[in-house]
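Work package 3, deliverable 3.1, input record:
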Amino acid sequence: EAGVAQSPRYKIIEKRQSVAFWCNPISGHATLYWYQQILGQGPKLLIQFQNNGVVDDSQLPKDRFSAERLKGVDSTLKIQPAKLEDSAVYLCASSSLSTALIDTQYFGPGTRLTVL
Amino acid sequence: AQKVTQAQTEISVVEKEDVTLDCVYETRDTTYYLFWYKQPPSGELVFLIRRNSFDEQNEISGRYSWNFQKSTSSFNFTITASQVVDSAVYFCALIVGAGSYQLTFGKGTKLSVIP
């Protein structure tokens, strides 16, 4: 079974530029998550989708971050404009979550973003 | 609000030594789920184990074992006879409640196994 795929693996941009990350979850997984992991810290949830609907985006900085999952499969996370403090690894995870059960989240390799 | 504390920032051991990684969690909910993930230098978080709050049985999987104690709110992870391939950052994480799916992570413990 293929795991969670993410691209690109690395991205270097200058502040105020825009950037987009792509995630393809494990086949059949209804729930998709985007996490931000700053160096030396644990990941922090940015947004959670169930199918193509947003379940939780309370920690997403909506003035500059946006995410979509139009067909309930792939997802894109965008930052516009980027700030220096956005330098981090952006992790995508998926789970075959039902409404009644807590299921394990499986993570992709991440995209390491450096903002100069 | 829930919280996960991993007090050990970095640990170094010599190969074949046993090592225990500590995890202390805080929550007022009676229903919760605990996880351990491994993050090798490649960056991908690898799922190791999941435990729910109603199951205090300890678990052993090969060289890995987990000790869950609700009385001390701890979910410690022991690696027996450590190997160089065990070198990674290990994260303990928590999901609280039946309707929430957000993982709250600790800050991680970096384990270095020296040959």
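Residues 9 and 75 of chain A are 15 Å apart (CA to CA).
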